Amino acid sequence: MSTLNVTRTRDRPPPGQVHLILPVDLRPLLGTWVNYDHTSSGIRRLHIEDWEGTPVVRVFGAALPEPIDWGEVAGAAFTAGVDAREAVAFTAVYHLEFARVMLAAYLNKRLLVVDAYTAFTDHSGRAAYFQRDHLYLP
Amino acid sequence: MKALDYVRAEDQLPKQAVPPGGQLDPALLAGTWFATDKEATGVVRLELTQRDGRLFVRAFGADQQQPNDWGEIEATAYGAKVTAVDAMAFSAMYDFGFLVTILAAYAKQGILVLDTFNTFTDSSGRSNYFSREFFHR
Lengths: 138, 137
Fold this sequence. Notes:
The structure holds 2 protein chains of 2 kinds.
Chain A: E1 31-35, E2 43-51, E3 54-61, E4 68-74, E5 76-78, E6 89-95, E7 99-108, E8 111-120, E9 129-136
Antiparallel strand pairs in A: 1-2, 1-9, 2-3, 3-4, 5-6, 6-7, 7-8, 8-9
Chain B: E1 31-35, E2 43-51, E3 54-61, E4 68-78, E5 89-95, E6 99-108, E7 111-120, E8 129-136
Antiparallel strand pairs in B: 1-2, 1-8, 2-3, 3-4, 4-5, 5-6, 6-7, 7-8
């Protein structure tokens, strides 16, 4: 058996672990998540569905008179460790005409914590910014 | 004047606010950050450096003998809002050949919170995984 490449201790499976390529269980992420804060200026709600093992993310941004539909993007799901199978986090990147938004999200006690890293590409002079929202499954 | 594009209210400039333009000042992030967990199995140290207004990150992973130097890469800095002038968060991506690691981090009250999103590109069968780690100067 060849030696596994690692960048840190955590990359190593527990001793004796048999490596099986199994799909990640996306179920903990699936559904329509709603922002706890109705006054948030960030993400109003977020929908995640399973498309053949890939989480497909659809964001609705807070705006008046109606939330803005960002459309769907394919995301990537992550577990809690190299030997885990249940999804606990995801990333998704929106390449908008005027900005790039990376969503970096994780579950915490049934809360979905969504960090949005936004970098503007439209030369508007707006600063790249970080924003956090907390969402729940109603 | 053309209205600015946005997909959520936070993207918009406050009324009569002037966009800051230019680069965010990464001074608040710069320095050496150490894992608060002395038994950490993930990232044990982060070196954040500013050069010519740009931000660079050098991460060190926990290993048996000594920390594993991941090398230095450029990071993207983020402020707290569209009118910010100081950086308080960053993202960066390492491609190790067998693993892609996204770093997504923010600083708050003297603590740096680092999320890593790790995708294996080899055939080892390891699950892609997430980690959340805390650092102090």
